[in-house]
Amino acid sequence: MSTLKSRLRGQSKRITGPRAAILEILRKHPHPLANKEIFSEMPAGHCDLATIYRSMHLLERMGMVKRFDFGDGVARFELVGENDDGHHHHLVCIRCSEVVEVDECFPEEIEREIAAKNRFKGVTHKLEFFGICPDCQ
């Protein structure tokens, strides 16, 4: 947690109570959380939902969290480690919303081939898989 606070200080940002609480909540969860989920984990009266939204936008701009879209119109956020680019994928159950991190990724050659074929530069990708988990089958 002290490393996360140092990253905030390093970019001349204050470590407010809500920001520290958000970082702690995200640190404890292995999967991305929506703003409302973060808010529900906050101690009562600690901050309002608007503060969560503002804080998440700030943390995303700073590269401390990464935003994920699981196709339901709800942004979810996950903590990004200091020496981590945050690049990974998820498998999401379409019935219960269970999320599993997927370590496998496409080889860089595929990205380069797609970029070259379409004359793009700086190509990256985000990929989420959807299906039905064993418990919901």
Word description of this protein:
With 137 residues, this protein is an alpha+beta fold. It folds into 2 domains: 1-82, Arc Repressor Mutant, subunit A (Orthogonal Bundle); 87-137, Dna Ligase, domain 1 (2-Layer Sandwich), CATH 3.30.1490. It is built from 5 helices and 6 strands, in the order ααβααββββαβ. The strands form 2 sheets. The chain has a 3-stranded antiparallel sheet. A 3-stranded mixed sheet has the order 5-4-6, with no helix packed on it. A hairpin with a 5-residue loop joins β4 (89-93) and β5. α3 crosses α4 (49-61). It starts with a helix and ends in a 6-residue tail after the last strand. The mean pLDDT is 85.
Largest sheet: 3 strands, antiparallel
Distance between the termini: 38 Å
Task: Indicate the mean pLDDT.
Answer: 85
| Top CATH class of the largest domain | Mainly Alpha
Radius of gyration: 17 Å
pLDDT under 50 segments (min length 5)?
none
- What's the architecture of the largest domain, going by CATH? Orthogonal Bundle
CATH topology of the largest domain: Arc Repressor Mutant, subunit A
Q: Which geometry do the CA atoms define?
A: globular
Helical stretch tally:
5
Order of helices and strands: HHEHHEEEEHE
* Helical fraction: 25-40%
Tell me the domain tally.
2
Strand content: 15-25%
Structural class by SSE content: alpha+beta
Tell me the total number of β-strands.
6
Largest sheet: spatial strand order:
1-3-2
In CATH, what is the homologous superfamily of the largest domain? Winged helix-like DNA-binding domain superfamily/Winged helix DNA-binding domain
